[in-house]
Amino acid sequence: MDTEAHKIRTKKVIVSGIVQGVGFRPLTFRVAKKNNIVGTVQNIGGMVEIVTQSSEENFQQFLYDLQTADCEGCEIIKIQISDISAEDQQVYPDFKIIESTANREVSIIPPDLATCDRCLGELYEKGNRRFFNPFISCMSCGPRYTIMDVLPYDRDTTTMVDFPMCEGCNEEYVSPESRRFHAQTISCHDCGPYLILKEYNKRSSQEEIQAKEWRGVRASSLGRGVKCINQPPRAGYKRDENRTEPCEKPVRPLNSHQVSIYKSKKRFERAVRLLKRGGILAVKGIGGYHFVCSPFLEETVQKLRQLKGREEKPFAVMFESVADIRQHCHVSPQEEQLLKSKARPIVLLYSQNEQMAPSTYKASIYCGAFLPYTPLQTMLVRACGPLIMTSGNISDQPIIREDSQMLALDSPLLDGILYNKRRILRSVDDSVAKIIDGKPQLIRRSRGYVPYPVFLPEREDNLKIFAAGGDLKASFCLYNRGSAVVSQYFGDLEEGSVLAEYRQGVADLSRLLKIQPELTVCDLHPNYFSTKFTEAMDRPLLYVQHHHAHVASVMAEHHLNDDKVIGIAFDGTGYGLDGHIWGSEFMICQGADFQRLAHLKYTTMLGGDGSMKDAKKTATCFLLGAGLEQYVSDERKTLIQAALTHGVNTIQTSSVGRLFDAVSSILDIRQENQYEGECAAYLEKEALLAEKSGVAAVPMAFGLIRQGSLLEIDAAPVLEVLCGLEWDQESGQGGRKRYEDQSAYLLRRQALALGFHYALAEVVLEVCRLLGQEQQTNKVAFSGGVFQNCVLTQRVLQLLERDGFSVYYNEAVPPNDGCISLGQIFVGIMNKDGSESVQLQSDRIKE
């Protein structure tokens, strides 16, 4: 016998990862019991500490079982094991879950989790004590981040503290056999929360009056012998509609549990009737309110657009199941997996029919579809069918989370509010994603993903860092001990209410993670609100160029710490080292350093960043700059030309995003951006339609010009093809006016749109070949909002990988400006000895 293997030892095990709010302590308890382990388990800050007393053999089996056990939502990142010396040991009679402590620095907090299948089964299981409970949850599902006040994660550190457990829930909470053993969000009809329905401009129906009468009866007495008129019928009995006299027989009273179910069902049924009649409801969710209505009723959807002030942007639709989604959209296996993931993002899918109201998706080729992630949402879509479920806000404002704010809205376009008294501590919008090249690409990283960290190199000095991100699609990032927590999406900081929410979010997450930054990082743009906010923090500060941060975010995700990488950043705007607006950048990046080596030839444009909406004006500026004046059809041509000549309110830009706007206008697809990226989205739609129908791309090519150490990409040859092939020299007309057959015109437009995308991908390959040879590297990292374009991104990947390049892109964070804060953090971590390019950027801001 191996006496050493059977010798009793006491060990301390520290487990890091997503191990709070996911049932990890109860799991540890069960695994310890199974392996005859005695000791304790407790939450300590953001980790779990386990003290074990057992033989080495049992301990090793315990560790194996713990790491391989099925624990939905749990992710173990690191396990640290140490022996407890004999003098510090105590004798443990059994294994216990003990009171949590907050004596450790916090790094990992669980995100909000979609309702699990077992809870959904109980939701519709008659006789179950949580039957039809819109707040059912367990160890594996329910709100976490949005209700958590401080760590460690316990009921009294969340907003569930407002709802004391009833006797039945408490029995489950303390029972190791229960799947709600130490489930902090445990509740039922007796505990609360409860549904509340406020209706606007509605005369009480007879049924509503009866419900009010019944509540009055319950308030007066629930004893035997109570006489009542129109009491809600008990199961198995029909109401006598002709009865006018009070009941003479003693009535069996409902207990408080039955009354709670009855009231909840009545309020829910009234809400469903409102929706089915074409009403618009505000419904409280996990991270804030949604505006909810039918996607099939055009008048109702138009009212919703008025309510939100949202003219063109498509709405997201919630479906009960993937089978329901397939009736409206194409769903690949990868898209199905993403739809069903615990994060439950809105997934952009290729729409394949037109059953819904025209105003639901407008002219978009994509359907934003998602599955329910709360019990109440499941109940609503099961009762009503698919529902528009859009953020409960006025466009460009933060999502509303406070009941008082929604109740104060009191819009004549809103028919009611379905809410509850569970407080939401932080607004977290729905995440948005799509599949590109078979992998998820996030477009908005928020609920379900935040605040899960990205793991980066640890600095030896344990420096704590704050990165402010950018002003558009704003997020910030906090770094401590190798863990970078990117915040939820906030919106655009130029909106005062969004900036206020952002400021509050920084203070809130810094408190929750217990991080007081010793270094701050922000964008190079001197007029960004995020830059000014960071400067006001009065801490050591680094400035990081916008497009460098884009590429650095990819390097951070893929641990390209010291690799030499060809970085590509394509987007709409970003302040450059030369004071111009960049947006088509090729650079060599290594560590915290970068060097710009190629870009789109500068175009002089009018109106600064504010001109982004007017695609026709953008097209005029591009055509005049390319020497293609003969193709300009803008009636403001003379005025624009004079302003450009005299430098009146002009900027120099190398933005690919603006080039997409110009091409959209030239091809008469869209002349204005009603929302950010609209022109580019519809240009992508034309190219995608061409790909799917097998239309051949019109050949065209960008030029390359060497300017000293820089390569300039010349768009003039492409613009000339786009204009010239469509132009009739005799009539002086282009576009659809040349075609009597509109279908022929549309096919031609699709072929030109596809040709533009392919030409851009080809020039990316050409530049990467040149830079790869010069810099002796085959690694390419690309980022930026333009790479949300499926046609371009997939073509770039195909060409580069076929040519032998190792290609990296954003997966954990969006490629748009939602990734900027992570990239800034990466530069801050890698800037250990004072990077030359970081210093150059800091010097630039001081000029």
UniProtKB/TrEMBL annotation:
A Pfam entry, by short name: HypF_C
Catalytic center residues: 25, 43
Molecular-function GO term, any one: double-stranded RNA binding
Domain Acylphosphatase-like span(s) in chain numbering: 10-99
Class of enzymatic activity (EC top level): ligase
Top-level taxon of origin: Bacteria
Biological processes annotated in GO: protein maturation
Residue span(s) of domain YrdC-like: 265-448
Protein name: Carbamoyltransferase
Lineage: Bacteria, Bacillati, Bacillota, Clostridia, Peptostreptococcales
